[in-house]
Protein 1
Amino acid sequence: MRILLVDDNNTNLLFLSKLVEKLDGCQAVPFSSPQEVLMAMPELEFDIAVCDFQMPLYNGIELMAEVIKFEKYRQKPFVVVTVDTDMQTRMTALNAGAIDFLNKPVNPLEFEARMRNLVALSEARAQLANKAEWLRREVEKAVADLREREREIIDRLTIAASYKDPETARHTLRVGLYSEAIARAYGLDEKLCHDILLAAPMHDIGKVGIPDAVLLKKGKFTEEEFNQMQRHTLVGCEILGQSPSSLLQLAAEIAGSHHERWDGNGYPLRLSGDDIPLPGRIVAIADNFDALTTERPYKEAWSFERTVSHIAERAGTQFDPQCVAAFLTVTDTFASIMQEHRARECPQAVA
């Protein structure tokens, strides 16, 4: 246990140091001026501080006020040594954060008793702090384990949704990466960006409820078939929205809103503007980008440049203008994701 001693009288400082040395497991950390103490901050290590009240430039209370400006010292016990016995001095010290007092001349037996009590208090605080830190780590571990299980559930559901169509699995993975890039450029916090990365691939989970004759059709949809296909947003929202998981709730929100349009002409609820959840507005751009740049049985893949121009032109009509602005700042990231995935899927073509 390190005990900080501050006294401008060297005789008193030596006397206090010898008293500390008599305490089992205690080490004196002596300073002869408040300025030296402040210059040693914040590297100085101590567990208890004993400060003389009457010192030049800084008295003991003023020194204490300066020391506890550092976060690491705010819970340290401070003892003020003074010849003053008036109530005003003691109240000032208590209000500043002092925990105890010693009167000059210091009585060795009283000093030993006070220090032993404070050592016990400091050890108890340290044990509580260690226990609190252990509990914090355990909670973080439990939350991380829960998030990992949620992530695995989403991965399994995504695989199930794309079982009939392997391209759907690749599409959902890219949409997640594109959505995360837009979310970061938009300025969302790290946790939400990561959650969007995990939840966005679930945007088409509702397609499990669409008849195969419609889902796997190679040509253009009839009006009735298109109406059936639109139901995948509602089905996905219903599948995911029953879960208490915040991550699956986010996925449900995305599934139900990623086909809404900024101008209100989307589906399923014809929401418009800020009434559309922001994650849905982000995924709408990512989904559209990937759909246009990917070859389908009924169309050729658009070029990267044509797709970027298409999305930019629809800011304020189909897409949220702010989300489009964020998208335009990360087109290099989109190009990298496209290239990486094409190299993985068709290595001979890239070579």
Protein 2
Amino acid sequence: MSKVSNISRRRSSARAEGGADYVAKRRELLRIAAKLFKEQGYQSTRLADIGREAGLDRATVYYYVGSKEELFRETVEGVLDANMAEAARLLADSSLSWVERLHAIYVGLMVSYEENYPATFVYIQEQMHQMGAEETAWARDIMKKTRSFDSTLIHFIQEAVAAGDLRSDVSPRLIENALFGMLNWTHRWFVPGKGMTGREIAETFWSIFIDGMRKDGHGAS
């Protein structure tokens, strides 16, 4: 049996057992990976860089993770799934108007960016479809989820326009690009604990947006 196969077998066994020390070290590697992916970019970061930052040699790193893609996957997937679940919850909440639902998911996203920093920013920054990663089954699944989430956001906007809460002379796609473009660009400058909170930033952006998008030309308080 090759050394790589033996390490893979030991890794699978350790993950199945779920020991506290093993879980803690994997979490540390995920944290370091997210940090380096954001600072250096996914393509430029090597598994060896992550191991060096964690004080582990290459063989030991493979005891905890099988590949750089595995770390990237775990860095972003949970956050994306949580945001999709929140969007689905709001979609089903008929007690809120469509513009209220749009507002809620907007603020919730920025709060999520802050709480899961820098995991979500890594995904936004890398723009997976530009990484050639769609060749893997996992990447195709992530892109499918991303498109589904995007469709939900467009649906919120379309319904808010149809309800007369937003102007109808601007296309829903342009509205989405303007609104969520402000949010997503924060990956270039936002750092938790320095300046405004994620919620404060989102509410400020929302007020700028809604003042220009209300059908009657008057913003909401």
Protein 3
Amino acid sequence: MDVVETRVPGAFVFTPRQIRDERGSFFEAFRHDLVEEVTGRPFRPEQINYSISARNTLRGIHSVTVPPGQAKYVACLRGAVRDIVVDLRVGSPAFGTHQVSSLDAGSGRCVYVPEGVGHGFLALTDDTCVSYVVSTRYVPGTQVDIDPLDPCLALPWGLREPPLMSEKDAKAPGVRAALAAGLLAHWHDVR
């Protein structure tokens, strides 16, 4: 795999080397030993989630409080997404910095999202399926949601029309309100 660290410290893009022939292609999508070697942190999957989205669905920006924290390994299994990670770790030298990646089923490209970093995506096709391999199980009440359209973050979604969003995401607080409420992880707690 080719691995590149993003502008968000600790977030990486993994692009598999594909073996192609007349039948199609084959590639490794995930190896926990490689993720641990690259990130320098343990990563043991505890849960795998899937979302199916219509074109122009905007999901995120989501994170999890620390504790329990949650790292994610995100892949697009069908369709295509504009994937964005944003550093929400208080005290991080890159606080507020974001990284945009294109994920699609054909490339096999994946994004590793460390604890305390926010994640979201815009579905670019109908019937888009995204997989999240996560390091902790779902714990009610620990989800941190940030307004994906927060002007303070000014994330480049490339919207051409109003997106489809859940009520929860549409009503999520901006990053300043989340910071003031003490919802965001601290850099020193997730390093």
Protein 4
Amino acid sequence: MATKHEQIIKHIHSLPVGNKISVRQIAKELHVSDGTAYRAIKEAENLGIVSTIERVGTIRIERKQKENFDRLTFAEVVNIVDGQVLGGREGLYKTLNKFVIGAMELDAMLRYTEADSLLIVGNRVKAHELALKEGAAVLITGGFDTDEQIKQLADEKQLPIISSSYDSFTVAAMINRAIYDQLIKKEIVFAGDILTRFEDAYYLHAKDTVQDWYELNQTSTHARFPVVDDRGRVIGMVTAKDIIGKESDVVIDRVMVRNPAVVQEKTSLASAAHLMVWEGIELVPVVDPSNKLKGVISRQDVLKALQQIQRQPQIGETIDDTISANLQASDEEEGVYHAEVTPQMTNQLGTLSNGVFTVLITEASRRLLAHEKKADMVVENVTVYFMKPVQLDSQLTIRPELLEAGRMYAKIDIEVLHDRKVAGRGLIMAQLIHR
């Protein structure tokens, strides 16, 4: 039987897009406490099926697909620009395809304003009216209001008209930044993106027997399975090693390993990979917050996804990407790298920041291992020694040296030079993931 939390999430899923939701309403309709309703609504917000807007409330929105992360709902725009909704609240769940800054004559504006777009404009009532009639929402900058008839038109068209105290350039930059951040998120793969769903996964119940394990092994050709209780919650893992020498009628509950490592759907692929390498396990159950089985991921799934990510072009660029792009292989010496200290790499004093130093030595080590061991690495420990501050525009030479390397483990010593003098050193110990 589903928990109250799950019942509320299912109920919210069933509501039409654009529907307003409140804690009190959910609590009353589903006969739960306000606290339970509040926690479920917050979970729904994390799932991307509702959005909460100050002075408006919480509304049901269309769940965003990964391929549509470069678009925002008008509800998200309100939060981004600290806006106030003047009219057209019923359309907050809609998605904008593009935005236009209305610093032009009305005739020219007409050519660029189209349905599902957002016109960013100041205190120009005629422009507000024109945009709404063309099927576009309106964002009024400078904190201005608009005429009552425009608000009524926005309600009729179900197109939001929003007011923000920021100027046009600032709100455009804020929206661009939000899209950019979401593009970076689009590239981050989670366990939920690659799992084998519960319906297709192989698992055993606690009351099953060793004979059931053999039958499932024959059917699936797998040797390890999650074990669930009557409510579908993961309580153990059972592998071939656990059942060897056991009678066929022995109950799985007596031979399984209890409290196994698990991940959730929002666990990043990198974290899942680290867990599997660190614990030396081949299969991890994916669970919901109540530990109910949602599916499984295997080491093969993780490695395949990691390799696919590396082959894909970057869409958004993080600060780590910027730093890594600045690291160039030496033309004279193999396994040696050069980097220039740019403004983005400095701290408030204008010298190379500690975090950037760590990124540089980690990336140099990763490239060395990719070349020499044909493997990726999961960092286990980093020790850093700073000898002297490095100024802006300085040229660095980075020399990683492989001290020890086994099948699953490596130790790398890194020397960082500036003007042929040691500026810092690092020691990295890492687990290896072979390609």
